Automatic annotation (TrEMBL):
Keywords: ATP-binding, Nucleotide-binding, Translocase, Transport. This is ABC transporter ATP-binding protein. The keyword Cytoplasm does not apply. SMART domains: AAA.
Length: 213
């Protein structure tokens, strides 16, 4: 599903070169739930962004479903990302002036499309958000915000979910809900790669990896 061969990233910062990620190899199969650990600054987010077709590595090869994603042009790569990958971040990144429904449907051009409307309804019910559909992010708890971000990422049922510290701002019960949801998703054939500092999150994963640089 995801294959990294000797992938590295060197950031140029003023006159300096920062080796953020050094020659990482990774093979992730469909249905696996990976937890990526590593100390602060070890390159976890950098790795996730390269897998997510958002950051070109300085060297190495990133393949998703046997496709070398950095040989695609920008438009093809953006389309590939939209079709195949869902993102969840610690900071949620919800649009403040849109309500829950609109945030979940943000990437859909036709928000009246019946398929997406029914997918949105079923996700919000599953995630206990059905009574909050007209709330704006400032009117939600942290756990609810993360569940909205989760619903947004899941709307198109992407094959691959990338999660960067998805429980970083949540209490134990809300963390458990998010991790359980991601685990159930992998049991139904989805694939999840999650960066986390939270050691208890590793218990939900099928595979763990520790990176250092
Ligand atoms: N755009 C950038 N330009 C220059 N250096 C960067 C850039 N982005 C990240 N870095 C540096 O690259 C290194 C790896 O960063 P990254 O965010 O991938 O680490 P991380 O393991 O996710 O850290 P944390 O756990 O603290 O979130 C860090 O030393 C960081 O300062």
């Amino acid at each position: 599903m995801v294959s990294l061969k000797s992938v590295g990233k060197v950031y140029k910062y003023k006159m300096q070169e920062i080796n953020a990620l050094k020659a990482i190899d990774l093979e992730v199969n469909q249905g696996e739930f990976w937890a990526i650990n590593g100390r602060s600054g070890s390159g976890k987010t950098t790795m996730l962004l390269t897998i997510g077709a958002m950051l070109q590595p300085s060297y190495g090869e990133v393949k998703i479903r046997h496709r070398n994603i950095y040989t695609l042009n920008d438009k093809e790569r953006t389309n590939f990302r939209k079709e195949n990958i869902g993102f969840i971040f610690q900071m949620f990144y919800l649009i403040p002036y849109l309500n829950v429904t609109e945030n979940i449907m943000i990437h859909q051009q036709l928000r009246s499309d019946g398929n997406y409307v029914s997918a949105m309804r079923s996700l919000t019910e599953q995630l206990g958000l059905e009574h909050r559909l007209l709330h704006r992010p400032s009117e939600l708890s942290a756990g609810e915000k993360q569940r909205v971000a989760l619903a947004r990422a899941m709307l198109k049922k992407p094959e691959l979910i990338l999660a960067d510290e998805p429980t970083g701002n949540l209490d134990e019960e809300n963390s458990r809900q998010v991790l359980q949801y991601l685990q159930d998703y992998t049991k139904s054939g989805g694939t999840v790669i999650m960066v986390t500092h939270d050691r208890s999150a590793n218990e939900y994963a099928t595979n763990t990896m520790n990176i250092s640089n």
